[in-house]
Amino acid sequence: MEMPKPDPFVLDRKAELISRLLTVLPEDAVISDVEETRAYECDALTAYRCPPLAAVLPRSTQEVSDVLRICHEMDVPVVPRGSGTSLAGGALPTADSVILGVSRLTDVLETDYDDRIIRVQTGRTNLSVTGAVEADGFFYAPDPSSQLACAIAGNIAMNSGGAHCLKYGVTTNNLLGVTLVQMDGTVVEIGGAHMDAGGLDLLGVICGSEGQLGIVTEATLRILPKPEGARPVLIGYDSLEVAGACVADIIKAGVLPVAIEFMDRIIIRIVEDYAKAGYPDCEALLIVEVEGSEDEIEEQLALIEEIARRHDPVELRRSQGEDESAKIWLGRKSAFGATGRISDYMCLDGTIPVSELPRVLGGIDRLSKEYGLAVGNVFHAGDGNMHPLIMYDANTPGQLETCEALGAEILKLCVEVGGCLTGEHGVGIEKRDLMTHQFAPEDMEAQMRVKDVLDPKWLLNPAKVFPLSVTQERRAG
Amino acid sequence: MLRPESEQQMAEIVRGANGPLSLRGGATRHVPGAGEAVTTAGLTGITLYEPGALTLVARAGTPMAEIEAALAAENQRLPFEPMDHRLLLGTEGVPTIGGAVAMNVSGPRRVQAGACRDSLIGVRFVDGTGAIVKNGGRVMKNVTGYDLVKLLAGSLGTLGVLTEVSFKVLPAAAMQATLVLDGLSVEDAVRAMAAGLSSPFEVTGAAHDPAAGKTWLRIEGLEGSVDYRAGELARVLAPFGAAERLDPNESDTVWRAVRDAEAMLGEGDVWRVHVRASHAPQVVARAQAQAALLDWGGGLVWLRLPAGTDLRARLDGVPGHATRVRGQGPGALPPEAPALAALTQGIRAKFDPRGILSGAAEA
């Protein structure tokens, strides 16, 4: 992976930078020791590592602003970091950068059940936002698989999704306001506790900008009343195509499940071996979950099961209670981890039009054979967000490269059929060089113009999102 | 009036423009500004509709009615329930899908299903330099590159001329029910609506008309489920009085009237005020309006005031923003804090360096 050459002028001024940072931060918030900065050398895309020049852990918006102002004045790149769970290398440092971690910004600032909002500092983890309101019957809807660890700051940067976004939307649909610190230290309030921020939808473009437009230190999030109950049904088929057709029919029937998850045989076996979720051994397994009271669940599941039966399933089993439901979801949510137990893997994240499912699964199967690496498929079928897991051996020279080449081909296929490179993980460094397959030069130019306004020196989260060749002139200043 | 028949022609018009252009879809939502008139009326047609993927793509000038009819034929709908402005603004013409996006027009269901921009998953547009740009696409989960889809929604045509828009659509509800409470004060109405919206019974509309003394809460879905939830919701609302249930036809009529702000008909300026719902009683008290209508549980307050009233002065200090939807003179759009205004101006200057698309925002 090509990264920009560190700026020798910045490297030379490390001592000056640290002493200036120490004028605005307490000592325990500045990490500059070469060994200690190693802790920040990578995120969950561990194949790529580079220790930063320094890391800072501010405790307030003011401190974030002070750090950014100093880095801006000294032309030092800054890499924002939530919890470091990015699968796309979104928080990968460069050797001349300062990591700005929000992990000490974890307070709940306001909770209002009448207006159904919560305002938090963005280092707070996704699950602990729900944790702050669930005793009162509310929850925060976006639920990425990493929700136990991932920070709201990272969720906003990547516009994270989850298994239940078919009904509840992704981060951008649940975000009402932010405090944004620009690279020059300017603090801007956008939106608030009201619906629709007003003016140009800056909130919309900041969400998902991968930390390249500013650092969000506080966020007002929409919280929702918890449903009365939820229940999944397992539907197994001996053909991927038929499972895909079943998904389309369920959606067309006018019942909107909160989640429709899809696993192929490779993943079913890996997960069952690990989580003992009681999954049947078949070509394709759907988990369809609906919400409501007992009677409402019955009404919806009856409709879904009737549709499923028309496609001749090999398994059709309703969860009989909360324990079984939890097991079924544990299986799905541990799919990545269970795969990691038996093999190195690379997790892709392309989205496709649901109607193209059979064609894309066929294409993946063909490419998998061609490249000689196994690919398991587990994904959010309701919205077409695929997660092909390519299994490889990191210790066999050349396999990582083969894996990356195969991944690139699969993502190109997603774009070819009308989809996109990434549905919820973000571009980061991982898919940066594939952007030209999805976007024409003028499409990327329009996006980069927004960065020109918010970060004219192009110092925030360098070398992510856009191919280096495309950003070269701008980075040169 | 220039009427390009293709995106390419639209790009040529923008590229060749020597002065401001006055963009319009059906011109039902605002009085177009100064400059050479350009209409999207030649850019029509649904280009892709996949009911099984809940996806619809249409050219920007496509009449709203055509889109709603195509969706209805498959028992689907646009989630955000866009308003028809013709009655309120006394305009004629045909509302277009591009116009709804350019204004980010969202109706009563916004409180549960999100705004227009939340359903919008892709755009194609011609920017102020005449470049054709695409962003997003036809899939509902997409974080590839920056989200210009949201940025274009509600940008009033100032960043570019929309030529094509894509949506996530939803199944239409098989059944709806509306519960009505009578004679509540604004304070109690807001409390009642909050109680409904904070219940697990999925209220998809919550409105209050102080003059009529009515508070409405809507539930939609499968038949059995609607019956059940209507019963449970009535229990939640019991502290505020005995709720009466409207039949589906009456319910339809109520929500159409709320959607189109019929309570605002009459002489005077009409304002839309976005605030946190619990601030709505304060807004109504301070505005001293001739007529008021609360939607989104109070998150949207419609107000009618004598022409020329400085509503913003009366609401000074209440967080949120106020837009004058009907009335004369400058100041229709809310002012922005300096740091925010600098960003807005900066982005506009990048997308439209010659300032030929600013007409809509000024008008």
From TrEMBL, chain A:
Keywords: FAD, Flavoprotein, Oxidoreductase. The keyword Amino-acid biosynthesis does not apply. Its cofactor is FAD. InterPro entries: FAD-bd_oxidored_4_C, FAD-bd_PCMH, FAD-bd_PCMH-like_sf, FAD-bd_PCMH_sub2, FAD-linked_Oxase-like_C, FAD-linked_OxidoTrans_Type4, Oxid_FAD_bind_N, Vanillyl_alc_oxidase_C-sub2. The keyword Flavoprotein applies. GO terms for molecular function: FAD binding; oxidoreductase activity. SUPFAM superfamilies: FAD-binding/transporter-associated domain-like, FAD-linked oxidases, C-terminal domain. Residues 48-226 form the FAD-binding PCMH-type domain. This is Glycolate oxidase. It comes from Jannaschia seohaensis. The lineage of its organism: Bacteria, Pseudomonadati, Pseudomonadota, Alphaproteobacteria, Rhodobacterales.
From TrEMBL, chain B:
Residues 1-172 form the FAD-binding PCMH-type domain. One of its GO terms (molecular function) is catalytic activity. InterPro entries: FAD-bd_PCMH (IPR016166), FAD-bd_PCMH-like_sf (IPR036318), FAD-bd_PCMH_sub2 (IPR016169), FAD-linked_Oxase-like_C (IPR016164), Oxid_FAD_bind_N (IPR006094). Keywords: FAD, Flavoprotein. The keyword Flavoprotein applies. It holds the Pfam family FAD_binding_4. It comes from the Bacteria. This is Glycolate oxidase FAD binding subunit. It comes from Jannaschia seohaensis.
